[in-house]
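Students often ask what a holo structure prediction actually looks like on paper. The answer is less mysterious than it sounds. You provide the chain, you provide the ligand, and the output is a string of discrete structure tokens encoding the 3D arrangement of the protein together with HDE.
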Amino acid sequence: PVAKAAQKLEEAAERLLPDTPHVPGVPSSTTPTIEEPTDPAGTTHPPAPKPDQGTPAPVSPTGVPVTGDPLDSAQQGRWLTTATGVRVHDTDHSLTAGRRGPTLLQDHHLREKLMHFDHERIPERVVHARGAAAHGRFTGYGTAASICHAGVFDEGKETAVFVRFSTVLGSRGSADTVRDTRGFATKFYTDEGVWDLVGNNIPVFFIQDGIKFPDVIHAGKPHPDREIPQAQSAHDTFWDFVSLHTEAQHHTIWNMSDRGIPRSYRMMEGFGVHTFRCTNADGETNLVKFHWKPKLGVHSLTWEEAQMLGGFDPDFHRRDLYDAIESGAHPEWELGVQVFPDTPDQMFEGIDLLDSTKLVPEELAPVQPIGRLVLDANPTNFFAEVEQVAFHTGHLVPGIDATDDPLLQARNFSYLDTQLSRLGGPNFNQLPINRPHAPVNDMLRDGMHQTAVHGGAAPYRPNSLDGGCPFHATTDQSDPATRAFVEAAVTVAEGRKVRDQPASYDDHYSQTRMFWLSLTPVEREHVVRAYTFELGKCYEQAIKERQLLALAQVDADLCAQVAAGLGLEVPTAAEPLPEAAPSPALSQLGATWPVEGRMIGIVVGAGSDAGDVEVLRDAVLADGNVPLLIGPHGGEVAGATVQRTFATARSVEFDALVLTDAPVPGPDVPPSPTGRTPDVDPRVTLLVEEVFRHAKAIATVGRGAEALPAAAVPRDVPAVLTDLEAGAVWPALSKLLATHRAWERFPVAVG
Ligand code: HDE
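The corresponding structure tokens follow.
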């Protein structure tokens, strides 16, 4: 009967599945079979470390040894587990019915792994999506006491901070070096709760009233039909907006200047932009603008460098910040304040302090230092910290308060609102990066992603069930350990409800012109080129013409040069040009600055002297900068390990270049179409040409100077130092780097 049943089964199978090559359990002699592997785990994988073998010491990109137990990067312990802590023996193979059969629904490990992966992304920030951040500490000088009683400014008081830098327009994966404003947001975890100073690297903003924010951002973001261009203002909708809303002209000229393309987050100023109100221990109020002044000075990329980096190293600023901190060059800023009397009109020297399109020149109100910020630790996990950090202009502490600036008022609504959808519920302040370092007793309960297990029965007050807890703190401000946050008791302007603005908001050009007049000739030339490039990318003639009209109100020379570049008529200014005087503090040039965390490219080849190379490297390193050896191939050259090869190096990565050889073309250089073999490797020649064109310092030792002629670099020009002793190179170079670039190398076209 068994044989009969088997035959019946075979017949049935043939009927039902005539094309099926192989019915399980029914041998078929006519269909090919595939040999199955004998080892289900696969034998082709390279050997992986075993749990009891230890793990090789990790290496960092800056060559700094990574210390600590590698097992710390695991969450807990050494064994892979499911999310519920059950140990897993195989995470590479799904549970299937036979080796070639379907996957079983029962495979919980597979389902859990995919479910979690499928939900790894959260909405990116609607603006400032692309950023990088670091931990650090802020130390008060005690000098703010006369204007502000916030404990964070007390002398010697140290407060933990987290700072996130960002671009505004681009998506999370966009390039760092685009022309844009940069965010500079600082979270102070003070003893009296979190204070967020959510600023930018430009002291003014595009609009005066927050109700226009969605409009200006819609105009700056990619066009809604094609979703291009990414992370740019060089397109029609942006220029359409700023030429129609001319209050944006002041912010726009800052963007068109070198401030729009910073060399590094470490080399940017930061500004709170709005005016805030501070209260001192006697209850007196003052109006205040916050400034971050970088220890390393304010420096920028050239436009060509910025564009090249967009391709060669889109993560340039993120890498720079991380590498500098890792290599011990901890970025520093001084926090300063401009202080203005809290007068009823909230004006200072004719400048409306509630108008965020205006700044107060430092010559009229000096920036007075009140504390120091040092960033000394990189994030451990980008998503958990940089992505999930939630800043808010409403996060204020006793002593610091908002003003009626309509831009700030709108921000106080917007940040909470956006975080609700970005972080998926109302409990984002419980995330580790947002958690205050002060005790929290908030009566906020439940909701999505609640992680606290609240005790007590009465989350309301007053109550008689939880011993009356929590209690109101006192409005008496004398004891920081017990006082509450109290809004400054200022009189609010009264009037009819209106949708209108003060008359002072109509001045859109006096400070735009002041900015232009404050720049040196080379900085002005960059502004002209930036406008010409950006408007040249617009296709709508009317928009270019309207923006030229706006420029005519700023400066006739500026307008004429941009018009010439666009091939358009120079319009006449509709109104007389506004009165304006230069503010020297607005120029980036003319001072010297400390040199730290700079990248020094050192070209080495077969003709380099190993002793020279060692002396050079050691001097650069000892002074807190990073030497990067560039050789014809990886491995060892001139007795040292090469970090970049001629194939991987590009000039934009280096702040200065040292040539220790003039290497001949390597075997990996394709033959020249002319049939003539160049004397020097053409990739080295390109390095030298670009570094020269970007006004960066060049030094040569040994045979290095022989590489200059191929790049048409003369010897007797500023910041080209030839035939130095190795020991003399770094002292000379660091002196040159203190001014960042040698602009004097080139005659400037624009006066
Ligand atoms: Fe923001 N801004 N902003 N902004 N802003 C955001 O909040 C907004 C403005 C700034 O690294 C958003 O959490 C409105 C001025 C920084 O996480 C959002 C207005 C300044 C960051 C928002 C402004 C800034 C943001 C998007 C006009 C300089 C990044 C994601 C009234 C003083 C913070 C988020 C970070 C982020 C709204 C204007 C700085 C949508 C409505 C002026 C540095 O809430």
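The CA atoms of residues 206 and 248 lie 4 Å apart.
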